[in-house]
Specification:
Layout: E1 5-6, E2 13-14, H1 45-52, H2 58-66, E3 78-84, E4 94-97, H3 104-120, H4 124-139, H5 146-159, H6 162-175, H7 180-192, H8 196-214, H9 219-223, H10 225-235
Antiparallel strand pairs: 1-2, 3-4
Helix pairs in contact: 2-3, 2-10, 3-4, 4-5, 5-6, 5-7, 6-7, 7-8, 8-10
Length: 247
Amino acid sequence: MSSARFCASCGASLDAAARFCHRCGTAADGSSTAAPRATTAPRTAGSLLPWTIAGIAVLSLVAFVAGQNFRKAPPAAPAPNAPFAGGAQGGTPGRAPDISQMGPEERADRLFQRVMTYVAEGKADSVQFFSPMAIQSMLALAPLDAHRRYDLGLLGMVSGDAAMARAQADSILMTTPDHLLGLILAMRTAGMQLDTLAKNRHAARLAAVVDRERAKNLTEYIDHGPDIDAALRESRGGASAPVPAPR
């Protein structure tokens, strides 16, 4: 029997030691004929936090982010004859972007978009499956500016790593104490950690400085404008979007 390995999602030839497909990012474990599966390891309480704790507007957050055509990146050229079934849990048929041909920034952006789209679609298993790849791709861009730290913090939130998300918020605020994205991340991660006092403190600060900060017209404020609006509603006690249960 041939020892050749092929990606079950896009059909690309895989190296013997490959853990993920270099073309579309799908996991390479299993036989060449079996579709890759999302991890089946039991979820910990931490991994379920973004899906279950009331008050964290994860759904509205990622719906805004996923719909923003993040950083206005042009679509990647589709790989020839590479059908894409939507990753670990399936999805809309299409063409798999060849991430092996992308630069580090575009690769990080594509994986970020992919994870956020899965969250918006309620595909918890796919979020857990692809988040580590997206996080590593983002870390590879170090040193990170506030915009990238915020995006890394979002990945931490949706994958259940509140400590990592909070670390990104602290790093942003250490340099720029009134940065809106840092305050939003700090407010939401405090909510994930059930620290009501810290959450209220960051929410009050966000409401107090938002007009002055937005007047700076920073690129990250423009790109994440809808998310800032959603966070302001949260900070003022507005209703957050319903959070999907784990699938």
